[in-house]
């Protein structure tokens, strides 16, 4: 990971964000629009919708000025399968997960938050609202 981000990663000090198990399991479940307090999120998919039409897609805008950028033509979408993983610059990338579209679909991810020595944590209201 250090080779990718350019410096050694460090686990974040906040236990609320250090490791997160996020489970979407009902039709309409989503993970709302936000940016993270810490710069990097390493996300592993334990379960994922089989098809993009089932929902659970990652929507993201790198370098977003606001969360509203997700509702513009700048937003990218990514479908993942069980066993996939991604590394996201999560403090400057607006991101969310689209709603699951039908019963029986599940999306379970394990998210690990990391920082670096040079990164200053940004305490964002959007991240805090997701977990309190």
Your description of this structure?
With 132 residues, the chain is mostly beta strands. It has a single domain, classed as Jelly Rolls. It contains three helices and nine strands; from the N terminus they run αβαββββββββα. Strands 1, 2, 4, 7 and 9 form a five-stranded antiparallel β-sheet that branches.
Question: Which regions have little confidence, pLDDT < 50, spanning 5+ residues?
Answer: none
Gross morphology is globular
CATH superfamily name? Answer: q2cbj1_9rhob like domain
Note the run of SSEs as H and E: HEHEEEEEEEEH
Q: Kindly, what is the distance between the CA atoms of the first and last residues, rounded to a whole number of angstroms? A: 29 Å
Query: What helical percentage do the residues reach?
Result: 10-25%
Count, helices = 3
Strand content: 35-45%
Number of strands: 9
| CATH topology group | Jelly Rolls
Number of domains: 1
Radius of gyration: 14 Å
CATH classification, class level:
Mainly Beta
Main sheet properties: 5 strands, antiparallel
From the 3D coordinates, which CATH architecture would you assign?
Sandwich
What structural class do the secondary elements suggest?
Answer: mainly beta
Overall mean pLDDT: 91
């Amino acid at each position: 990971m250090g080779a990718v981000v350019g410096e050694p990663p460090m686990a974040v000090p906040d236990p609320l964000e250090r490791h997160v198990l996020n489970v979407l399991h009902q039709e309409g479940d989503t993970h709302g629009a936000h940016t993270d307090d810490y710069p990097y999120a390493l996300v592993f998919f334990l379960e994922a919708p089989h098809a993009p039409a089932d929902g659970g897609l990652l929507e993201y805008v790198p370098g977003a000025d606001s969360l509203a950028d997700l509702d513009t033509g700048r937003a990218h979408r990514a479908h993942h399968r069980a066993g996939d993983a991604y590394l996201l610059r999560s403090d400057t990338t607006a991101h969310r997960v689209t709603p699951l579209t039908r019963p029986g679909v599940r999306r379970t991810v394990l998210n690990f938050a990391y920082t670096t020595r040079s990164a200053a944590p940004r305490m964002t209201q959007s991240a805090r609202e997701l977990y309190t």
